[in-house]
Description:
The protein is mainly alpha-helical.
Amino acid sequence: MNEMVQNPPSALGTRATRQRAARDAAATPGADRVRVNDPDRTMANILQVATAEFADKGLAGARIDEIAALTSTSKRMIYYYFGSKEGLYVAVLEDAYRRIRRIESELHLEDLAPEQALRTLVGFTVDYQLANPDFIRLVMNENMHRGEFISRSTTIQELNIPVIHAVRDVYQRGVAAGVFRPDVDPVDLHMSISALCFFNVANRHTFGAIFKRSLDTPAATAQRRESIIEMIVRFLRP
């Protein structure tokens, strides 16, 4: 996590940069053979490109034709794998949540003292969302749909159960140790962590423009990261 702070990624990047990267990934020798013989790799490539497209343009603006062109595949193949444009969109949402939850599970919070576990979880959330602005865009787009498509996915709901269990375990251990106050709902705590980390990326450009602050420098990133961690920790102290 320290390395992330010292060398913060560009918060948003450009659509053209992501598309060039997707083209380079797709334009490999034997791509046609891979498409036929390696469906997992094909689907992963489609999801990677579709993530950038849906993040940039939303569900309504993204085009299957464009995704097919960027992955050197066909609309027919995309529909074969995902059923429809909406099916691909839901698969992108599921993949986005699966990635963050998988990495969270590797933090081994249960091996850390409660306050250190909380600091680790909050710091990870700051770092991950800063490094993955497309995740923020996808969530923002889905909120514009009032959670319609997330609500259709039992996978996403199941993926988010472990993180609540992890937050609850850290919090309850802290209460038992006397380092956290005993009147906080773990889901509310998770919401507060998410809110601070989300705003840090989603509103960085408008906030920076209004208050004439550069929020992308290593120093600003590190300072904001520490502030978010301290706010959450102090909120829980007795």
